[in-house]
Amino acid sequence: MAKGRRSDYIPRGTQPAAGAGLQPGMLEKIKKMQEEMAATQAALETELINVTAAGGAITIVITGHQRVQSIKLDPALIDPNDVAMLEDTLVAAINEAIVASQAHSARRLEAVTGGIELPGLF
């Protein structure tokens, strides 16, 4: 190795072409996976997850993109003398719904990628 030259140095004009070194058909597989990922992401926007919390006193409907669509409360849960309890219960229920939505999305996306992580591709 020449003095002062990095060990990973590749002279210009000798770098491999884009996609070189990939198995045959890999670029097509990656492109198909990207298309399926985009379709799954679009579907998650409208997929609804129903979550019940507080012993069934709260029902939250949330999308696969973590957008709350509706909240239903059992009237027995509403006590004008204990607003703080209702607020705390709602926060816990919404957080539970978000976690359920994230888990749903992760399962759907994992079905597309087969569990492999391809950073920067999606």
UniProtKB/TrEMBL annotation:
GO cellular component, one term: bacterial nucleoid
Keywords attached to this entry: Cytoplasm, DNA-binding
Transmembrane domains' residue ranges: none
Positions of region (Disordered): 1-23
Top-level taxon in the UniProt lineage: Bacteria
Gene Ontology MF term list: DNA binding
Function statement: Binds to DNA and alters its conformation. May be involved in regulation of gene expression, nucleoid organization and DNA protection.
Sequence similarity: Belongs to the YbaB/EbfC family.
HAMAP family in UniProt: DNA_YbaB_EbfC (MF_00274)
UniProt-recorded name of the protein: Nucleoid-associated protein CUN48_06625
